[in-house]
Design brief:
160 residues, mainly beta, four-stranded antiparallel β-sheet, 9 strands, elongated
């Protein structure tokens, strides 16, 4: 019986160690504050269209590169039936936040949909990244310029 207990204990410790190593090797992390925004529109002939978009960020915890991912669904219907449903989406690679590889953590958020608090088009987003091996945090904000290009600036935080 004692021998069986030792084997079970060794197996449990091995499993915990493997899980720890597996988590340490997680190179990509998904943002945890995904948002969804929906709008409705009326079209000629009493057609109703609803469009929903959602964004998330996939972050490379080693290099600080990230992807902004978007998915959208548009539904068109009349008073009796659904006429059309379309979906679209994908991820766009963004530049590194930090120049060197390390172990990073991050968070991201979007502005509200257009017509609420965006000045020049579709609004913007903020990315926060932290080097988990030292006291280093960088905040980045990207907004649409309204002239066809995005403006993105990052700032290293100071600690007082």
């Amino acid at each position: 019986m004692n021998h069986v207990m030792k084997i079970c204990l060794c197996a449990a410790l091995s499993l915990v160690t493997l899980v720890s190593f597996a988590r340490a090797d997680e190179a990509f992390k998904l943002s945890h504050n995904q948002r969804i925004a929906c709008s409705r529109g009326l079209a000629p002939g009493k057609l109703n269209t609803a469009t929903c978009k959602s964004y998330a960020y996939l972050f490379n915890a080693k290099t600080s590169e990230y992807f902004r991912c978007q998915v959208s669904l548009a539904l068109t219907r009349d008073n009796k039936e659904v006429i059309n449903v379309t979906t679209d989406g994908g991820c766009t690679k963004k530049p590194r936040i930090f120049e060197n590889d390390s172990s990073y953590d991050f968070d991201a958020t979007e502005t509200e949909p257009p017509n609420t608090n965006s000045f020049f088009g579709t609004g913007g987003y903020a990315i926060w990244a932290a080097d988990t091996t030292q006291q280093k945090v960088r905040g980045c904000i990207t907004i649409s310029s309204g002239l066809g290009s995005d403006i993105s600036k990052c700032l290293d935080m100071t600690f007082q």
